[in-house]
């Protein structure tokens, strides 16, 4: 073995001092270091990419944690006051401490629930049409419309409803009118997310059902929608969360009230985003600012709760492995 | 139970593309007919026309006639859903419904078509699983998800699901191509048993498999890429493999092309 290496060594020295010995020419140090150079470069790239990735992640987390920290820090003690979960803001002025948020919590839940009741069936059925049935021009037109709708700013949706509801029909501003504007904002979110989920259902499952002599609509309801169920629920909750904090339609269509008000169709309507906005001229007063932080935290908690409920539903309805 | 299939002069199109041209053949009842041929020669496409599954793909249509005994599968009064209840299908990749248990998978065809009686379902699930040689392996865990079975078991589950709706004909589109040799053997044994009850058509890329399981073999080929596929010859499996009439068949079987 060593003789073979020795015998080859003089050949390699035929070009003395030339660093660019061709690979395979000498299996010694040079070949190894040639291999380790790109290897080292790869390590460095790997480390740099890692740092950049973690840095981006941390950077994205900063505002989130900051906001959450601030809101919890400044608003949490409001949630522990005696009246927060039971009372309303009646006869509470900017310089009065506390009061309740129950009127706004109930109002927001009622309004968002009503919005979902209208938007979810429309959104899901539209997605089913687009994925399972739609071919040609009509489907393209609908898809395009949904795209446009998802880009509509909330204030434009609100003004559109105002133009139809108040100006044209001469009906009063109300929680219901605001719900209609929220429906416009919610539908595209639900259509798009449901569409993605339906597309994820493998075609083989549809074919399996067809091959058993199952009609198409039964296949869609019992196989496709069933398989996509947990994803659809997640999408619906994202849509609800999106709509819950929407403020422009409330400003324009649903004037705030400090009282309990359960009638969505007549008169002013209490909601959490509007409660945050309630003492807007007096945030210099500690009492008003505290109330605002409390209402903001309450809204965040509602969104969080909805997400948790959605997770639970999705978990129990998900594909079993 | 089993019925004869008579195909005369069938052309299959996807949109304006002619995928299969001029196929005429008879598939005998209570026997296994194998379709062999190179990839893209239209054997799967043709198979899918036997239960109108090709219509699932947009633009799929046929010219010609397919008779199931005395029923014209393409008569204007014939509903494709009815056709598929009579002519069942097993696919290349096992595709149990992932949201359903083993029991629900087998019962799916009946349940989705409105059968609710628990006793009827229990009986059919058991007999179908027995018919698919799967009963002993799963009888203690019928309520477990079907997707948790092994690939070979899943494929037998799909066969059980297909025979649970009591079809006349069973189409199998490369049912073993995603399976290991042991599972393949289990499926081949099963095909041998099932042919006592059903008319079976099986597409396979594996010529040994065609030789092992089929009574008759049909060889499909295409003249050139872009040309429609066509039926080269069909006959008893022993004859096709030992003494084919066409040169192309002999070349394919002896591995000279394809």
UniProtKB/TrEMBL annotation, chain A:
<feature type="transmembrane region" description="Helical">
    <location>
        <begin position="171"/>
        <end position="191"/>
    </location>
</feature>
<dbReference type="GO" id="GO:0005315">
    <property type="term" value="F:phosphate transmembrane transporter activity"/>
</dbReference>
<keyword id="KW-0472">Membrane</keyword>
<feature type="transmembrane region" description="Helical">
    <location>
        <begin position="143"/>
        <end position="165"/>
    </location>
</feature>
<dbReference type="GO" id="GO:0035435">
    <property type="term" value="P:phosphate ion transmembrane transport"/>
</dbReference>
<dbReference type="InterPro" id="IPR051408">
    <property type="entry name" value="Phosphate_transprt_permease"/>
</dbReference>
<keyword id="KW-1003">Cell membrane</keyword>
<keyword id="KW-0813">Transport</keyword>
<feature type="transmembrane region" description="Helical">
    <location>
        <begin position="47"/>
        <end position="69"/>
    </location>
</feature>
<protein>
    <recommendedName>
        <fullName>Phosphate transport system permease protein PstA</fullName>
    </recommendedName>
</protein>
<feature type="transmembrane region" description="Helical">
    <location>
        <begin position="223"/>
        <end position="244"/>
    </location>
</feature>
<comment type="function">
    <text>Part of the binding-protein-dependent transport system for phosphate; probably responsible for the translocation of the substrate across the membrane.</text>
</comment>
<keyword id="KW-0592">Phosphate transport</keyword>
<dbReference type="InterPro" id="IPR000515">
    <property type="entry name" value="MetI-like"/>
</dbReference>
<feature type="transmembrane region" description="Helical">
    <location>
        <begin position="292"/>
        <end position="314"/>
    </location>
</feature>
<feature type="transmembrane region" description="Helical">
    <location>
        <begin position="111"/>
        <end position="131"/>
    </location>
</feature>
<dbReference type="Pfam" id="PF00528">
    <property type="entry name" value="BPD_transp_1"/>
</dbReference>
<feature type="compositionally biased region" description="Basic and acidic residues">
    <location>
        <begin position="1"/>
        <end position="15"/>
    </location>
</feature>
<keyword id="KW-1133">Transmembrane helix</keyword>
<dbReference type="GO" id="GO:0005886">
    <property type="term" value="C:plasma membrane"/>
</dbReference>
<dbReference type="InterPro" id="IPR005672">
    <property type="entry name" value="Phosphate_PstA"/>
</dbReference>
<feature type="region of interest" description="Disordered">
    <location>
        <begin position="1"/>
        <end position="36"/>
    </location>
</feature>
From TrEMBL, chain B:
<keyword id="KW-1278">Translocase</keyword>
<dbReference type="Pfam" id="PF00005">
    <property type="entry name" value="ABC_tran"/>
</dbReference>
<dbReference type="GO" id="GO:0035435">
    <property type="term" value="P:phosphate ion transmembrane transport"/>
</dbReference>
<dbReference type="InterPro" id="IPR003593">
    <property type="entry name" value="AAA+_ATPase"/>
</dbReference>
<keyword id="KW-0067">ATP-binding</keyword>
<feature type="domain" description="ABC transporter">
    <location>
        <begin position="5"/>
        <end position="247"/>
    </location>
</feature>
<dbReference type="InterPro" id="IPR005670">
    <property type="entry name" value="PstB-like"/>
</dbReference>
<dbReference type="GO" id="GO:0005315">
    <property type="term" value="F:phosphate transmembrane transporter activity"/>
</dbReference>
<keyword id="KW-0472">Membrane</keyword>
<keyword id="KW-0547">Nucleotide-binding</keyword>
<dbReference type="GO" id="GO:0005524">
    <property type="term" value="F:ATP binding"/>
</dbReference>
<protein>
    <submittedName>
        <fullName>Phosphate import ATP-binding protein PstB</fullName>
    </submittedName>
</protein>
<dbReference type="InterPro" id="IPR027417">
    <property type="entry name" value="P-loop_NTPase"/>
</dbReference>
<dbReference type="InterPro" id="IPR017871">
    <property type="entry name" value="ABC_transporter-like_CS"/>
</dbReference>
<dbReference type="InterPro" id="IPR003439">
    <property type="entry name" value="ABC_transporter-like_ATP-bd"/>
</dbReference>
<keyword id="KW-0592">Phosphate transport</keyword>
<dbReference type="GO" id="GO:0005886">
    <property type="term" value="C:plasma membrane"/>
</dbReference>
<comment type="function">
    <text>Part of the ABC transporter complex PstSACB involved in phosphate import. Responsible for energy coupling to the transport system.</text>
</comment>
<keyword id="KW-0813">Transport</keyword>
<dbReference type="GO" id="GO:0016887">
    <property type="term" value="F:ATP hydrolysis activity"/>
</dbReference>
<keyword id="KW-1003">Cell membrane</keyword>
